[in-house]
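Late entry, evening session. Most of the bench is empty. Finally got around to the prediction I had been postponing all week. Sequence below, unchanged from the version circulated by S.P.
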Amino acid sequence: MDWTLLILLVVLTVVHRNLTVTVRTGSGPPVGSDKHPNSVPLGEDTKPTIEVSEVVMTTGVLNLSHYPGRRAATVVQHYLNTRYGSPYRWIFLSKVHNGSAEDVAEMGRKYQLELTVQEMISNVSGQCSAELLFPGGEGQSAPQVQASCEGLLQSNTTAQEEAFYQQHRASNNMVSGKDIPNSYGHMEPSMKPFWHLGGVASSFIMLRESNESTLYNMAQVANFTQLETEKDQLRFNYHVLLHEMISQEIIHWKLLVTWSPEQGVKVLQTELQPKCHDCEAPPNTTN
């Protein structure tokens, strides 16, 4: 056989094994994806387009128009909420600037990311550098995250948090609420701190449950109930609805949450609820 022809056949075989051609037809975004900062908008194509995409996750520099970089960056967002979140500080992903990924032998898959996050209530932005490892091997284990941010905590929420804490610590009537936001995407202003607290608490679950094939946001606080203050911590039972954007599942979790200005948000207990096959994602809100 002619050597030139043989080399050409080998090259074509390698290319075929690493690439696949996908025909994408026009389709709308996932439920609520245009109404929540955590969601990933998908462009609506007016004509079928042919796109070459990798069968496996990209190694090296990431194409940020594809999902892997955005998914990894959203995990960083959840990590930051577990560190800095409160009823008056809820962090979400604004933009991924660049990123890379590599397989680390016997450890998993590591991402290096440069991103911008934004604090929802004050609109203060921060530039972050992050390293994220999705552990390999069998079984689900939480991603390992390290991140440093500039400017993220410039907004001073101390006065608001202290007033909220004293109000509800001293209250003889325990606060409760449900369907936040409601089916029209509305919530009472007095419920917004509890919505933010539910979102921050949900980040503890979403961080723990995330992998390279998931993309979570909190869709709704189904209900919450304040419990008796204990050891100077406000305590709440939360029932939250998480929207897994890839599978389009609505996942119910119950959480026991504590918070104080000094100790921050802690999630003491979690309980996954049975699947609801008929559930739909409620309208999301950015307020």
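Two things to note before I forget:
The longest helix spans residues 67-84.
The mean pLDDT is 81.
Will write this up properly tomorrow.
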